[in-house]
Design goal:
Elements lengths: L13 H5 L3 H37 L5 H29 L4
Helix pairs in contact: 2-3
Length: 96
C-alpha cells in the first residue's frame, strides 16, 4: 500500500468558491479601497514627477532620468487603475 504524502499547497481554484460569500465581498471591498488608495498615491507621485521634469527643462538641465521615471510612474498608474477597475467591476456583480 503506497503511503500518501499530505498535500501542503492549496488548489489554485479554491478562492473562487469564496467569492460569492459575504466575507469575500467584504474582502473585495477592502481590496477595492486599497486599490483606490494606490491610484490616488500614484496620481500624486505622477504629478510631482511632471513638476520635476518641467522644472528641470525650465532650468535647461538634463531631464532624461526624470522623464524615464515619469514613464515608469505612468505605467504603474495604468496597472493600478486597471486593477481598481477590475475589482470594482467584480464587486458590482450580484453575489452568487
Amino acid at each position: 500500500m503506497a503511503s500518501q504524502v499530505p498535500r501542503t499547497e492549496k488548489p489554485p481554484w479554491r478562492w473562487c468558491r469564496l467569492l460569492g460569500s459575504g466575507m469575500a465581498r467584504a474582502n473585495l471591498k477592502t481590496l477595492l479601497e486599497d486599490a483606490e488608495m494606490r491610484v490616488q498615491r500614484g496620481q500624486s507621485r505622477l504629478n510631482r514627477q511632471r513638476v520635476a521634469v518641467a522644472a528641470l527643462e525650465r532650468a535647461d538641465r538634463d531631464a532624461t532620468l526624470a522623464k524615464r521615471a515619469l514613464k515608469i510612474l505612468e505605467k504603474a498608474l495604468a496597472v493600478h487603475v486597471a486593477d481598481r477597475d477590475r475589482l470594482a467591476k467584480r464587486l458590482a456583480r450580484p453575489p452568487r
